[in-house]
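User: Let's play a game. I give you a shape written as tokens, and you guess the letters that built it. Ready? Here's round one.
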């Protein structure tokens, strides 16, 4: 049971880490586009 619990905990930590990484990767471009103006929103939206 301890091995099963450890694998579940590891999977949860991996999922949280992936979510944080995705949030960090997607947040800066959005904030930069909104802070600088509509010039950067067009290239980011086409990507």
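Assistant: Ready! My guess for every position:
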């Amino acid at each position: 049971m301890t091995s099963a619990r450890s694998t579940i905990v590891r999977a949860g930590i991996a999922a949280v880490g992936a979510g944080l990484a995705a949030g960090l990767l997607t947040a800066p471009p959005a904030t930069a586009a909104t802070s600088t103006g509509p010039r950067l929103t067009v290239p980011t939206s086409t990507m």
